[in-house]
Structures are given as C-alpha cells and as structure tokens.
Amino acid sequence: SWQLSDFAEASIQKIRQQVGSKRVICGLSGGVDSSVVAAMLYKAIGPQLTCILIDNGLLRKNEQSLVIDEFTNHFKTDLHVVNAEDKFLASLAGISEPQEKRRRIGHDFIECFKTEANEIEDAHFLAQGTLYPDVIESGADPDGPAATIKLHHNVGGLPDELGFELIEPLRDLFKDEVRRLGLELGLPESLVWRHPFPGPGLAVRCLGEVTKDKLVVLRAADAIVIEEIEAAGLYRDTSQTFAVLLPVQSVGVMGDARTYDNAIAVRSVNTDDFMTADWSRLPYDLLARISTRIINEVQGVNRVCYDISSKPPATIEWE
Ligand code: XMP
C-alpha cells in the first residue's frame, strides 16, 4: 500500500532529523510493536541504534533466539541480551497473588532495563512502541474501572525517570497498520502476525507461584499448542492461543499405575479489540491432537482442558 510506504518514508526522515548523530535505545520483546519500532529505527539511523532484550525467564520456547536471529542476522543491530532469569525467578519465589506477581515483574524489568541502558554511554533517546489506542487509553481516567482490573506492564511502558527523550513512531497507528508497516519494512510474516504476548509473560499463565520447573512444563505445552494450531492452518484465524498451567493436580492412570499430575488449560480467543473476546470454536480433531501430544510429550501432565469462557466475564489471561 503506497500510503503506508509514504508514512514509513516520512517517519524515517523525521527520525533522522530528530536524532541527528545521537544514540537511540530500543527495548525488544519479541512482539510486533517493539519489532516494528526497531526495524524503523534501524532503517533510519542504522548503527546509532542499540536494542535491549531482557530475557526474564518468562519467554516462550525459542523466543530469545528468534529475536536474536531477526535483530542480529537480518537487521544487524547492536543487540544487548540481558539474561535475567535468576533475578526474576528469585523475586517471584513464594509469590502467588497475581497483582503482586505483576508488580514484581514490572519493577524488575525497569531495574534491569535501567542498568543496561546506563551502560550505554551515549544513549540519548528511547524508542517506544506506543500505539494510538495506548495514547487514547492513557488519556482516560487512570483510576477508572479498567485501570484496576490488572496491572499492566509492557516494554512500551518505561517511566520518565529513565531520563531519555522519547521517540514514538507508531503513535498515530492502529495495530493492523503497524502489522502492514512491519511487512513494508521487511519483517517476516511469522513475526508480524504473532499473537500478542503479555509483558509479564508466562508468569501470568503459570497460576500461583512461579517456579523454574513449572515453567518448563508450561513452555513445552504452549509450544505444542502453537505448533498444532499452525499445522492446522488456524493460527491467523484466532487472535490469541496459548497454554495455561493450572495450580492443581488430578488423578490419572498410566499403564497400570495411578498418576497424580498437573492439568493444562488451552485458551484460544477471537476478538477485534481484546476488550471483549469469544472463545475460539476450534475443531475437535485439533483439540484432540493437542491433548494427546501434551499428555504424551510433556512430563508431569495427565489432563488437558479447553477454556470455553468469553470475556467478559472472564479475562483472556487467567491472571
Ligand atoms: P486480559 O487478560 O485483561 O488481556 O483480557 C487483554 C489483552 O492484554 C494482554 N495483556 C497484557 N499485555 N502487558 C501487556 O503488554 C500486560 O501486563 C498484559 N496483561 C494482559 C493479554 O495477553 C490480552 O491480549
């Protein structure tokens, strides 16, 4: 679409003017918005861009390597990967209350980002993937009902205290425009059409206390869900699809032996705006394959459930 390529060209020119010879840092999450921002900055100022990926230990299978591959091999950015799994898991130890989990993850994220950003001596600008809906939402009543449902955290929400001048090249765009812009900038379809993933990552899908062992189970189950929905050609027909590890054990039977193992819930929703959502009517055969594979391949799981709740009254994430 010619309009979007004009927009991209104009934004790139604007960024060059604004930045001059200074350095820009950009947090990467593996998601669409931060990737599009980084790709745009890279086109505009190339070697003056430094990207930061905080691996909080709560990422999906292969997520770190996907980001590294895209932003060092394809876009040859100066990418700093911070392996902070131990720090995040230590903060989360013993914590099962969802808001407190979110609070700690948000806090650790800012701390890690700040530490890394401060090492980049000449950093002057911070690029963020703020979208038009974020701009509108933050103008809304901050104490309104929506604000109190879940504490939101994402890479685009770093506080002013970091002291950088902001660059927000997606401020005028809606999500579908950001996706088209991503394709225009040369990002692969697999990244551009990726389902959204919350800032607190797998922690809000590992119900109750988060441990390394539970994350291993959840990550393996989630990868199977995604593989199967892609194999069925239905990934793009759903808005968000993932696995949740429930904080419950149930009885099963394996061969002659009784098992007492974990349960995985599969969540898949269709939505236009993520404010309301309906559960996806996935084919039974697909659900059957997902269930069989998870139970056979993921050690410690003997039961799979499908979440048939709409939003409202349920939310998309379980925490
Ligand atoms: P809920 O669970 O509130 O989620 O129905 C609505 C959408 O928001 C995503 N989500 C988040 N995204 N930081 C994010 O960037 C967060 O803290 C967060 N919490 C939920 C969720 O995945 C869904 O797409």
Automatic annotation (TrEMBL):
Biochemical pathway: Purine metabolism; GMP biosynthesis; GMP from XMP (L-Gln route): step 1/1
Domain GMPS ATP-PPase intervals: 2-194
Stated name of the protein: GMP synthase [glutamine-hydrolyzing]
GO CC annotation terms, alphabetical: cytosol
Catalytic function, reaction form: XMP + L-glutamine + ATP + H2O = GMP + L-glutamate + AMP + diphosphate + 2 H(+)
Residues reported to bind ATP: S29, G30, G31, V32, D33, S34, S35
Record carries keyword Electron transport: no
Oligomeric and partner information: Homodimer.
Assigned keywords, A-Z: ATP-binding, Glutamine amidotransferase, GMP biosynthesis, Ligase, Nucleotide-binding, Purine biosynthesis
EC number(s) given by UniProt: 6.3.5.2
GO MF term (any one): ATP binding
Biological role: Catalyzes the synthesis of GMP from XMP.
Top EC class for this record: ligase
